[in-house]
Request: fold
Amino acid sequence: MHGNSMFAPLSLEEIRFPDRRIAQPREKLPIVPVPADAPLLETYRHPKHGAPSKVWRYADALDQLMFAVARFDFLDGDGKPAKEILPLTFCDIGRGRRAWRAKGITGPRPLYRLPDITARAEAVLIVAEGEKSADAAAILFPDMVATTPPHGAKSPHKADWAPVAGRTVIIATDNDEAGQQFGDKVSELARAAGAKAILHLPPDRLGQWVWKDGERRDREGDLPKGWDIADALDEGWTVEAVAAMMADPAFLSPYSDAEEREALRRVEAGEPEEATRWPFRVTQTGVEKRIERADRETGIITIEWRWFCSPLQIAAETRSSEGEEWGRLLKITDRDARAKEWAMPMSMLAGDGTAYRERLLSLGLIMAPGKFARDALHEYISTARPGIKARCVARVGWHSRTFTFSNQTVEPSNG
Reply:
């Protein structure tokens, strides 16, 4: 590919007019927050889709407009109804001109209704997939603050989740695989941001019924794929009806991510308990330990995943050719995103762990302060069963039929 290099082929216009300088398109630079003299969002017209049918505004904590998300409804090439959701940002488009353009902002995006999240500091947060669903949740759950990350299920990781720290978060998922994946990602992000509790409102909590003539009736057939909380509003659910449902302690449950759902499947399938109860998991942000707490009054068990160190994988069990000197092959990712390996002798676990922690910290591991993190790390390394075994040798050279270098092994071919 030539890209924009000096050796790129000439364009048709450059061939026809060799003496004319071709102006290069200028990058659209977002202006945030949006200045007070900016034209109204409603004046924007998409070059292909025309006027937006709906616009949702995103502001910072001081209620300054940052950007918007717009929905465009149109007919596709076959004459069928179609839609497109696009970000709208006020931009510097060059030569002293400024205008709204279909472009996203850089850096972390604010959550929808961030000023409300900030102002109602004690309110529970309910996170839906998309602005339309968040608007419906705001109607049905007026005591909560309804929100969503920009672009819904596509990129929740691009939002700034810091405002959920110390808050109870309810995730209302859509009835499809994308909705489940969205819920899992939001759960992970909210947990990493320090959410106090993460609960789940699955689609069938409301979707198993519809309202007709003021009466709640069982739904006929399966819940439609993609059903969401906005559909609940369309099907007759009201604030009063939802409040009556919430009186049932089982209406909401602790959010179970993909790993926990797999553990439940194993239990239901009768697989060994050891395979389902190991209380650790590795995420993008590090290693977490599962903490279960039972409410003394209701008996409801809540689950918290508590972070104690940066990413640390236990890749293999190690031992000598004589079956002695057992250890663990540990993989650490440091703050420069460099991966490192260390074959740690299990004998280092015999004391208080200071020696092996010093070595891990020198390799770039980050640990939470306090006794919990020390104990959790000790238990994590001690009880891991990676399923892969490796042999540790003390020197470069032949070991049985394998020649070992410092970074690889070579075996002779059978020929």
